[in-house]
Amino acid sequence: MTTEPTSSTSPVPGSATGPEGTADVVPFRHAVRAWFAVSLQTFGGPAGQIAVMQRTLVEERRWIGQQRFNHALSYCMLLPGPEAQQLAIYVGWLLNGTRGGLVAGTLFVLPGVLALLALSAIYVGWGTTTLITGLFAGLAPAVLAIVAQAVMRVGRRSLTHPVLIVLAVASFAALAVFAVPFPVVIAAAALAGWLLARARPHIFTLKKGHGSDDGPPPLISDDALHHEPPSWRRALKVLAVGLVAWGIPLAIVAAATGAGSVFTTQGLYFSGAALVTFGGAYAVLAYVAQSAVHTYGWLNPGEMVRGLALAETTPGPLIMVVQFVAFVGAYRDPGDLDPWTAALLGALLTTWVTFVPCFVFIFLGAPSVERLRGNKSISAALTGITAAVVGVIANLALYFAVHTLFRTTDDRDWGPVHLQVPDLTTWRPTALAITLAALLMIFRLRWSVLRTLGACAALGLVTTLVW
Q: What are the transmembrane regions (predicted)?
């Protein structure tokens, strides 16, 4: 991917900035192409997705600086829902206003929606064939290597002082060893950042040559990026539009199928889940699984795990697993509809109510967050959250590694310590071999994400057919 030609007076050809940055600062067609390219590479969960955006927008195109990118990411980590998609909406808003945020957020999930619909249909209609099993056997280890690369990329850019490294390690330990709730970790990191700024302000003012790595300088100045003054009028308008956009499809489905239909139940349940899914897909997985399996009976425990595997191997947020849950549940309880029609309706409605709140959160809060960007106390708190994000992503990488390289794990509790310990007798030698091959491709051969995924998928299929 090449960087668009630029000039010193207009960061990107054809860009224009009006009063208070209300016009596009990047030509809209260029932004759409960039977001489409990003959407095809968003494998590997939030770690991989954030790394793809960082590489494309910060390092290659240089449309936004690393510090501005981190500031937006820190805010998104505070919100319920998929932080990577919300980060895409935020950056799209900075570059092209409201339409930029809408396009960035929609394209971010669209390939995953289509891919998971197809895979869900294959699963329901034809089960786990040798071909699909073989492809997944190679894709999962490849994603593990991609996540490992992402942890290194994000950590190298964000941990600019030894104290921030300690904060990242502490966050990782809190999640992986002591099972501290995600919101508590984020709140503690924000408090630590604020306290550190008061006690050691130099930690947050490091410049290049003194241990920090802010990445290449952006071609677009911070002042040129889109911004709007926060106001009650604007906030009420965003809330009203968001509630209407969320409510109308759900109301139509409820009126057409009945208040007690599986579609209405799924729409209401996943609307509520979208508001409490702090910590990303892994953090909310137990909550969704408990309800989907035991409360509503939409699928069985083994299918919940397979749904997560499907979401892992498609682009887009891992929370897309709820689409698989709704697809299977509606297919098996279609009411008066054809099962395939019911499955499609349930999946699309669930996807809609899951992601509409993400746009509302960003459009509602971004102007205030931008205004507070110069506030040293707020910036310090967000810097602490950014450091914790590295630990959070590392914890996700560990979780994925354990469940990719071993067939079973045991939950062990020793007082405050809670660990998922893999059963070493159930290790997967093929998965380990493909993981090592993927690490070689990415770190040594420097292959692209898509090329690595393709090669590993082929390796998985060959090993499955041979053994």
A: 102-124, 131-152, 164-197, 235-256, 268-288, 309-331, 343-366, 378-406
How confident is the model over 401-459, as pLDDT tens digits? 887 888 887 878 787 887 878 888 899 999 999 999 999 999 999 887 778 888 998 99
Give the SS3 label for residue 411.
strand
Q: Map tokens 């045991």 to a residue.
A: 410
Nearest partner of 144 among 445, 435, 451, judged by Cα: 435
Task: Give CA–CA dist 76/295, Å, rounded.
Answer: 31
Domain that holds residue 360: 23-160+219-374+428-467
The total number of structural domains in the chain stands at 1
| Spatial distance between the Cα atoms of 31 and 43, rounded to a whole number of angstroms | 20
Predicted pLDDT of residue 206:
45
Q: Give the CB-side neighbour count of residue 138, counting CA atoms within 13 A.
A: 23
Q: Look at residue 454 and tell me if it is in a domain.
A: yes
Whether the Cβ atoms of residue 10 and residue 23 lie closer than 8 Å to each other: no
| Residue 175: C-alpha distances to residues 61, 150, 384, 399, 410 (Å) | 34, 19, 16, 11, 17
254 vs 263: CA distance, rounded Å = 7
Prediction pTM value: 0.71
Between 181 and 349, name the one with better pLDDT: 349
Hey, what are 87's tokens?
A: 């980060």
